[in-house]
Amino acid sequence: MSELEVLNWARGTGLKWALVIFLIGVVLRLVEMWLLGRKADLSVARASGAAAGWRTLFTRSIPTPGLIKTSALVFVGGYVFHIGLLIVLILFVPHIDLFRALLGFGWPGLPSPVIALVAILSMAALVALLAHRFMHPVRRFLSGFQDYFVWLVTFLPLLTGYLASHSPVVSYTSTLAAHILSVELLLVVFPFTKLMHALTFAVSRWYNGAIAGRKGVAV
Amino acid sequence: MADDRTLGEALAQRGISRRSFLKFCATMTSLLALPPGMAEVMAETLARTRRQSVIWLSFQECTGCTESLTRSHSPTLEGLMFEAISLDYHHTLQAASGTAAEAAREQAMKDNYGKYIVIVDGSIPLNAGGAYSTIAGRTNLDMLKETAAGAAAIISVGTCAAFGGLPHANPNPTGAVAVSDIIKDKPIVNVSGCPPIPVVITGVVAYFLTLGTLPELDAHGRPKVFFGDSIHDRCYRRPFYDQGKFAKTFDDEGARNGWCLYELGCKGPVTHNACATTKWNGGVSFPIESGHPCLGCSEPNFWDAGSFYQSLPTPTTSVTGAAAAAVVAGAAVGVAVGAVSRRRKSQAAKARAPLTVDDLK
């Protein structure tokens, strides 16, 4: 199988099956969680729970005061990596091209060198966070196989994507195939690992905010 | 037919001056990335060389490769040099036909056994016992094996001979394969392209005549000097790719400004060929310069890489139906799993025994 055949497989059959597994997994888990339901809260509401829920969705993205003093690396690295990954994912022109093909609409992107810089910063942040996880005794104790696995499947698309346009040794065909395959691996494991937090964070934040808001706690 | 003239004599008789010949050798040396001193060596060697016997086998093909070499532009030195080799057998170009044509091939093989070059264009069908393409009642497979046996080297010209090409495209009804799938014991150079660039074909022949060996090849058996870089790496529109400036349609402002054709399906990033450097029609232009995306024609299985106008990151097949089915299936499985969980939860609630003081003792 030549490198172009691998690329064609990744763009065709591979992508189709990865999307199918991703969608089945994500919908399955969301529906299952929704069906489990919550107990009816019979207490008298002191304030609107729903409004507090929606507020919390955004306020929890703002760092709490003092966090940078207690764990500066996790604070900075976490923000750089998450925002960087989002920028690379939705503002790189070839990615927008893919979204346009899948969704039917697109949006303007950023120049390639800007995306490359953001990708480098994101990778550096990920490496720093991994090193911190290794070196910090408590974090190392709390980390299991899945933590390292999801780190790897998140890092690989960034690395292969960067190499696709910057590798002096490996051809674009090979690195692009590796990039698409690494994204497909990410899609396949996404619903069944901690990566699902990219979707469930919104639900859990809303509930946390709503529970607190209903009790009259300012959020 | 049999011709004892040297290549130098043949060219001189065609009115090619020594100055022109030296210029050709200097250009060819440069194209082949050989040291500058090799230009003189090439000139002397080629001028002394007897006209190389070449047997051109046309199998399952469209004659585009021959057209590329002979009809793409007004006669040039490359074209004349092609005429100056002893082309002992070629369906399209030779005057003889029928039994006489086949006799010419057999005679050339006998006279130059072990020394002649075989140029193949077209793939070789294997299904139905090879009956999809026959010459003089013989299958392509049979003729290739017989002719290749006495060859010094084989040049697979065009993507069909090099990788199977169009006939090999899914579902490949004729069972078409490349020359290298059949011949394993001879040096083979793949000069891929649909069609290949004339000067690349001539360059490989000139290299072989000068040095007696074949040029360094890449993983697909192509000469690295011509196929080492991707079209994208050598494209004059590359800066627009880096700046994120893309033509969205063939007649928008981006297209008129000569911006990158990536979003219009350009396969330049995954295509290795010399189009962006040697160009076509005597160096006039190449597809991207003419405003059309690269099709990726020098790569294996380029016909099966989705639409020519679909950009590289997009799926080669429609995923809409599968995605919709996946959402429905996910919801159905989710409902089933949710129902089981709720049932288990209510059963656990029913089975729960009240805590008594005795339990705490």
Largest interface: A-B, 46 and 47 residues
Structural class of chain B: alpha/beta
Reported for the largest beta sheet of chain B, the result is: 5 strands, parallel
Low confidence ranges of chain A: none
- Proportion in β-strands of chain B: 5-15%
Q: Mean pLDDT of chain A, nearest integer?
A: 92
Indicate how many domains the architecture of chain B comprises. Answer: 2
Give your account of this protein's structure.
The complex is a heterodimer of chains A (219) and B (361). Chain A has one domain (47-214). In chain A, 77% of the residues lie in helices and 0% in strands. Chain A has helices spanning 3-36, 49-59, 67-70, 72-91, 93-103, 112-135, 137-142, 145-166, 172-189, 197-214. In chain A, helix 2 packs across helix 10 (197-214). The termini of chain A are far apart. Chain B has 361 residues and is α/β, with parallel strands linked by helices. Chain B folds into 2 domains: 7-227, Rossmann fold (3-Layer(aba) Sandwich); 231-304, Cytochrome-c3 hydrogenase, C-terminal domain (Cytochrome-c3 Hydrogenase, Chain A, domain 2), CATH 4.10.480. Chain B has helices spanning 7-13, 18-31, 38-48, 64-71, 77-84, 98-111, 140-148, 158-163, 165-168, 198-211, 224-227, 231-234, 238-243, 253-256, 275-278, 320-351, 357-360; strands spanning 53-58, 86-89, 116-121, 124-125, 134-135, 138-139, 151-157, 176-177, 188-191. In chain B, strands 2-1-3-7-9 form a 5-stranded parallel β-sheet, sandwiched between helices. In chain B, strands 4-8 form a two-stranded antiparallel sheet. In chain B, strands 5-6 form a two-stranded antiparallel ribbon. In chain B, helix 2 (18-31) crosses helix 3 (38-48) and helix 3 crosses helix 10 (198-211). Chain B is elongated and about 115 Å long. Chain B starts with 6 loop residues before the first helix and ends with a helix. The interface between A and B is large, with 46 and 47 residues.
List the helices and strands and how they pair.
The complex is a heterodimer of chains A (219) and B (361).
Chain A: H1 3-36, H2 49-59, H3 67-70, H4 72-91, H5 93-103, H6 112-135, H7 137-142, H8 145-166, H9 172-189, H10 197-214
Chain B: H1 7-13, H2 18-31, H3 38-48, E1 53-58, H4 64-71, H5 77-84, E2 86-89, H6 98-111, E3 116-121, E4 124-125, E5 134-135, E6 138-139, H7 140-148, E7 151-157, H8 158-163, H9 165-168, E8 176-177, E9 188-191, H10 198-211, H11 224-227, H12 231-234, H13 238-243, H14 253-256, H15 275-278, H16 320-351, H17 357-360
Parallel strand pairs in B: 1-2, 1-3, 3-7, 7-9
Antiparallel strand pairs in B: 4-8, 5-6
Helix pairs in contact in B: 2-3, 3-10
